[in-house]
Amino acid sequence: MDIQVLSPERQPYFRTQCEEDNGGCSHLCLLSPREPFYTCACPTGVQLQDNGKTCKAGAEEVLLLARRTDLRRISLDTPDFTDIVLQVDDIRHAIAIDYDPLEGYVYWTDDEVRAIRRANLDGSGAQTLVNTEINDPDGIAVDWVARNLYWTDTGTDRIEVTRLNGTSRKILVSEDLDEPRAIVLHPVMGLMYWTDWGENPKIECANLDGQGRHVLVNTSLGWPNGLALDGQEGKLYWGDAKTDKIEVINVDGTKRRTLLEDKLPHIFGFTLLGDFIYWTDWQRRSIERVHKVKASRDVIIDQLPDLMGLKAVNVAKVVGTNPCADRNGGAATCASSHPARPSAAAPLAWSC
């Protein structure tokens, strides 16, 4: 219980800068003992614009997290890394997660209900896209340019694709897959990469239509659970839960090296945004990140159980195009059949 004494002597009135028009602040006006005796502030996870008065529309760099029974959103714009639970019902066992920056949908796989679902970034408007002939959908990737959705299934041992609304489903890869897991795309170059943690672990590459398949790495691998593509630098990163390493290789298969190999007991989710690689660790119950050049390491969240996949995105930024972006290439499902010509943004020869 609590008690307060109210009196003009205890709570005297005095005029403040926040009294008139909220100090000109769009959201919070907070009093301060220093000139100008107030500051403007924003809701958790949102940055203040350069004018010092107006908050941005929302968090721009965001970490989307799949836990077993919920989805969460973590702002990377501010250092508090507060996680917000998306209000989505009936999540039984979420595994992989991705985001479409064009329409603002979050996509995820659910292993228990054997389905692929999507919802708005705030959790509203949830809908099931695919729920037939799915066993263990471990990986998911959005082609935000051609408007397609790719996934891996360790039960059916297939890689499949649909339109983002769940129509025009097609099997792309169904041979020589044992335990396919992580999948990442480069829509501009027309390529996809995936990991397989089966008896003969490997990392493979193919065109987005499944053609031109090629093994990129098949030595000194254990359980390559996580995969992330740095499109600007032409590098592929992966996290291995058996060798306990984070490694990197050029997309042409050269210059493989270890980025981190300390205190990585069980990497699962894995993603990259800007200069940082983010991952979830089952044993440490943590979300961590490492600078891709300096190898400096930070803990984002710790002591959070049931961590699965994660995706770091800039929700305010859409980049890239390919021939499928123009009226879907005139087809029901359009996927680039060969890599695009390298540009200044892609200095290496992108091919499989």
From TrEMBL:
The keyword Repeat appears for this protein: yes
SUPFAM superfamilies the UniProt entry points to: EGF/Laminin, YWTD domain
LDL-receptor class B repeats: 104-146, 147-189, 190-233, 234-276
GO BP, one annotated term: nervous system development
Pfam name, any one: FXa_inhibition
Record-linked InterPro entries: 6-blade_b-propeller_TolB-like, Cueball_EGF_LRP_Nidogen, LDLR_classB_rpt
Protein keywords: Repeat
PANTHER family xrefs: LOW-DENSITY LIPOPROTEIN RECEPTOR-RELATED PROTEIN 5, VITELLOGENIN RECEPTOR-LIKE PROTEIN-RELATED-RELATED
Name assigned to this protein: LDL receptor related protein 5
Organism: Rhinolophus ferrumequinum (Greater horseshoe bat)
